[in-house]
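note to self: dont lose this again. the chain is below, predicted strucutre after it. 96 aa total, dont forget to put it in the shared folder this time
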Amino acid sequence: MKQKVLFIILNEYTDWEGAFLSTALHVGVIPGGEIKYEVHTIAPTSDAVRSIGGFRTLPDYSFENMPKDWYGRLWIKVKSSGRYVTVLHSYVHTVS
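---
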């Protein structure tokens, strides 16, 4: 069973921050290796979120309906007062 990794995105998220990690998780950390993770996006609501690069992203989950059986959660940097702020790098949740 693949483990879920949730990328938390907020308005004005930096769209390049999760690109390499999400790709590695989605297609296998080692090229040709076993794919152990599912990549999903999560946002405060189910409404679309816009990145600073202009991407309009419809999240897979909102905070209200996010899965309870997730392995990792990563916040993507957001623009705040003209600066980019990393809210939280990552958090790993052990599923029992």
